[in-house]
């Protein structure tokens, strides 16, 4: 049987690239659910549809979800992803937004998970608002996933949006707290620092974007803004190009590519003045709690590169 996958995303540039990876693999993408994060929700939905139209896969249902965090906060990463979320690239046709389903993304998540108990891998590569709301509306789904793979959190207090927090967790701290502390299904975390440690060289990026296909041309256009950002060598952003959501997608679809991992208890700081949104990992078992996440530490880079290349062919 094909692996059943749902992608929950805030489609910016790396989300779009992660979707391309999923569509290049022998998996069944049951749905893509959209959440505000990198850009506003309407842009997120439009960007997902652009990718699906590019790939001729508009048969995959797309659902609109949460417009803001559980507490009503609205975030943006337009400095990196552009105002539209795809690098403000020109020449990309507007999608047919009538393809969006009328059912809310949270309700779709609940329905699909209940319809396919223990069969679905949910790949969450944006703020966890939709996932937390689904958990609140139907707590039973928390134990019905095959696996929940999350791109989010940090393990060395390195922040990419605040001094000590990663963007997805910081965008909805309460949602991240709910998911980590209440989900009973296996959770795999791909954190910010692990993504930094699996950055691509600029030589690889040039080859990746120069395959002469419509997909590679699309990726090059939407990536220009983020490439300029990284090449300015912003402090704390690593060397080369980090593509976080793609790493999480590879971990979800090709778990054998993970060469090092560990199981730990992790939660999220909700109240600190400087540390709100920072993930707290109990490395030494001080809290006496059972591990609730599998923490990815190393991924085979050759496998990662191969899936990236295949996604744009």
UniProtKB/TrEMBL annotation:
Looking up InterPro entries in the UniProt record yields: Inosine/uridine_hydrolase_dom, IUN_hydrolase, Ribo_hydro-like
Keyword set, alphabetical order: Hydrolase
- Report which superkingdom the organism of origin falls in: Eukaryota
Q: Name one Pfam family in it.
A: IU_nuc_hydro
Q: Name one GO molecular function term.
A: hydrolase activity, hydrolyzing N-glycosyl compounds
Domain named Inosine/uridine-preferring nucleoside hydrolase is located at 5-305
Record's SUPFAM superfamilies?
Answer: Nucleoside hydrolase
Similarity-based family = Belongs to the IUNH family.
The name this protein carries in UniProt is Inosine-uridine preferring nucleoside hydrolase
- The species is Acropora cervicornis (Staghorn coral)
What lineage, starting at the top, does this entry show? Answer: Eukaryota, Metazoa, Cnidaria, Anthozoa, Hexacorallia
